[in-house]
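Q: I'm building a small set of examples for a reading group on sequence design. Run inverse folding on the following structure and report the sequence directly after it, with nothing in between.
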């Protein structure tokens, strides 16, 4: 049994079981607080018995160059520790972020995932995401990423998910 709720600053004191996982990108405290201050409606925690953190998602709404069709929800981090994987936790957290993005009238939701993370790519594909483009050296200049996207109801023609024909570099990202 788990409960989903808004991520709070107090969760930063209780999420070590999640962030100590080697597959989790860990950020500094300022980074988390910035997200909670600017985009609180895009940040959620899954909590289990005893108020144990079972996972979280941090996201935001953004646009490239002020172009309206580029208005989208972005998944900055979604993570579930090994002991709670394969229980649908990540899917539930992603569903919440997509729900907020729909409410915020976004055209799509995007995320970056390591090209080598086949399990995550498979999970996102099952959730309706597709590979939009490959980003060369996105992770510390050493590992490529896929920019994966899922069109939302506002993107009737699904323009936001038409794949780019060639890879890009991090400097080329909008």
């Amino acid at each position: 049994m788990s409960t989903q709720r808004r991520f709070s600053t107090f969760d930063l004191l209780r999420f070590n079981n999640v962030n100590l996982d080697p597959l989790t990108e860990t950020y500094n405290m300022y980074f988390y607080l910035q997200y909670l201050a600017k985009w609180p409606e895009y940040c959620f925690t899954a909590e289990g018995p005893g108020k144990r953190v079972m996972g979280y998602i941090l996201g935001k709404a953004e646009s490239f160059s002020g172009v309206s069709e580029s208005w989208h929800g972005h998944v900055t981090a979604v993570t579930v520790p090994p002991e709670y994987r394969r229980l649908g936790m990540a899917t539930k957290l992603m569903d919440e972020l997509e729900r907020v993005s729909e409410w915020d009238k976004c055209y799509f939701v995007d995320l970056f995932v390591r090209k080598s993370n086949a399990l995550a790519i498979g999970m996102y594909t099952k959730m309706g995401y597709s590979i939009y483009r490959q980003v060369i050296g996105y992770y510390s200049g050493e590992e490529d990423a896929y920019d994966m996207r899922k069109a939302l109801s506002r993107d009737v023609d699904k323009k936001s998910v038409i794949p780019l024909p060639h890879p890009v570099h991090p400097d080329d990202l909008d």
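The mean pLDDT is 92.
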